[in-house]
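A further point concerns the way the authors explain their paired sequence and structure data. Each protein is reduced to its one-letter sequence and a matching series of backbone shape codes. An entry of this sort, consisting of the sequence and the corresponding backbone structure tokens, reads as follows:
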Amino acid sequence: MIKSVGQSISAAIEATRLRESGKTRASTATGPTGSAASASSASPAARMAAEGAPVDMDRIAAIKAAIASGNYPVNPSAIAERMVALDLSAA
């Protein structure tokens, strides 16, 4: 069964959360204290929000310009292959 893109993203976020939760438990067991303990216990989403999104504004401008000029390359076969690969790895 093919999942929607939203389901795949939700599954990836949940997997990351679980992975990070396991790291937090392991580091807590070894005994960090103070601000290191609170930083390691933050959720991945909270950490990403605090750090800000990694954004390459030059790349965004180049993509916008290519789309506006009609020169943005789209390879439907490659997109379909990646979507199938993501779905198969999640199954």
About this structure: The radius of gyration is 19 Å. The chain is about 75% helix and 0% strand. The CA atoms of residues 66 and 72 lie 5 Å apart.
